[in-house]
Amino acid sequence: MEIRTTRSSAAAIAALREAYSRQLECQMVHYSFIGRELSDVYVATAGGHEVGYAAVSNRYDKGRLNEFFVMPDHRKAAPEIFRELLKVSGATHVEAQTNSALPLEMLRDFGTNERVEKVLFGDGPSTTLSSPEDSAFRERRESDGPGMFGRPEEVLAQWVIEAGREIVAAGGFLTHYNPPYGDIFMETSESARRRGFGSYLVQELRRVCREAGRMPAARCDPANEASRKTLLKGGMRICGELLVAEART
Questions:
Q1: In angstroms, rounded to a whole number, what is the distance separating the alpha carbons of residues 220 and 227?
Q2: Domains, the chain, with CATH or none
């Protein structure tokens, strides 16, 4: 059966993407790229029917194929579909999460010089960490100011930990990922590190994230041992890695 690949749009692949989201049991790190038009979309057809799609970054890490899906009844043709998508899109790199089977298989078949870009975390067991140094976890107030720790924030923290009338840690969770996941982010002021504030903040962010109807998730750089330990102590668990490889056809 002839496979054809054409440039498409987010609206055109909505049904395919919904099918992909339903089968996932993990957060997709770059899920928001299609909706924010940060990825170009390509659809694959076989016998006149849409059978799969791919997304290729057009701004951040430009040229990286970062999303791929094929309908279950066409999985045997996935390598052929993927090869055609690489050719038509001109993708130079492939990314895949180790907890998403099909993209990972394609990266291993069509990638070279593989590397780990992120360590991925999912929600873990309940923890009972006590607030260190009589600190308080609370919602951010307008009076806390527009920035944290002496500089503007890349993403606005919604929650803080206050100790001795000083904000020592801040964070929140983002919801522009595939439902039901919420992406936890956090930072501890340099002077307050290694005192338990970070892991306590993670624990409490997990709680408010779940109360909001979301499932906590997170990620960190593989070389950031401090963040890894903080997330684990706060109750998160390692659930995979984000891999990147150079594309080869």
A1: 7
A2: 3-118 (3.40.630.80), 128-233 (3.40.630.30)
